[in-house]
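Below: protein 1.
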Amino acid sequence: MRRIVAVLATATALALCTALPATAADTPRTSGTGEQCVADVATKKVTCFDTFREAAKAGSEGAVTTADNPAELKAAMGAMAREDWGNGRTWLGTASWDAGHGGDSLYFWGDRTCLTGNGEDYAWDLGGSRWNDQISSLTPSSGCWITLYQHSQWGGSMSDPFKSPAADLGWWNDRTSTISFG
């Protein structure tokens, strides 16, 4: 009888353990959380939002209030006939957590457009942040070319400049620690 009780107790304990949901620490993170983050290259401050509209409004310092996706933001830029918003804010480009421009997105904003091709206008070191080695797709904007570096502080391998959107970064997928815009 004791043996049956012990077996039942063990089976009940195992059932309870498997029925309990995993904690966040137990669940591997394969993607971002869907956050839309604004990175101000002048202040080196990142602020994240639940929606693209909130991120576009914050990044443009209120100049764009109705864009719900990057295509609408580009349309607003075209309607304004310039890529800065009259307040000195310029959308430089976007890095996305997942391939195909999915998952979390990091929208880089600066005070002016890039001098295309010089690679020296702006830079962002991702080392020490949750974005380090997590970028899987890119979208350059405002005439900026984006160059990726394998390690922090421009170390390791350097990519060729990305001049147009890249839905899949190939070898660079999840291997970027510094981004430059030029």
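Below: protein 2.
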Amino acid sequence: MPRIQAESNAAQRALTQRRILDAFGELLFTRGLPGLTMTDVARQAGIGRTAVYNYYADLEELLIGYALDETGRFLTELKDQLAAAENPVEKLAIYVRAQVEDLSRRHLPPGPAMRAVLSPSSFAKLGDHVGELNTVLRSILRECMDEGYIPQADLEELAQLVLGSLAASANRGQRDGEADAAREPEPAHPDRHTDATVRFIQLGVGARFDGERRPVRA
């Protein structure tokens, strides 16, 4: 096969796969996972059902493919943002903000629901990516302690504190969003919620700030 044709075919396959993943994400957002079929995904993507099976053998494989794609893209964007930060407290703010915003728009079912529909091996694949996210958080917290921006503490306990606060924030944000929708036409203020979560977590791990809200060493 000529190289140009091979590259064109590879690009076409990548484009079709992207359409499948995007269609699946839209359906997760609008309809949820229960009752979703490969036929629904094919119709949403505007392609034949057989074409979907050329990429994913079943709905479980599609779900894990979508989850890994979403998490991988999130990690790439997060690491790019962290590389531009000036200090570890700012990195923590970037991490928390990114997580809150991602959890508010992500179409994936929560962890327990994922475990219920995925095989142990597929759920383990997803766990590897989640573990990488947690490793990023631990690295930030360790840097904060090493540079004197937060008091020395048990790293694992501190990471669990942050993760627990993020989970609570996501649940609270979802409830607030539903309440705002029911109180139309008053608009929601997601930025205010995110800012409050960032500051709550920063203060919760022991970060301190000067009068101009710049982080200071303990």
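The CA atoms of residues 165 and 200 lie 9 Å apart.
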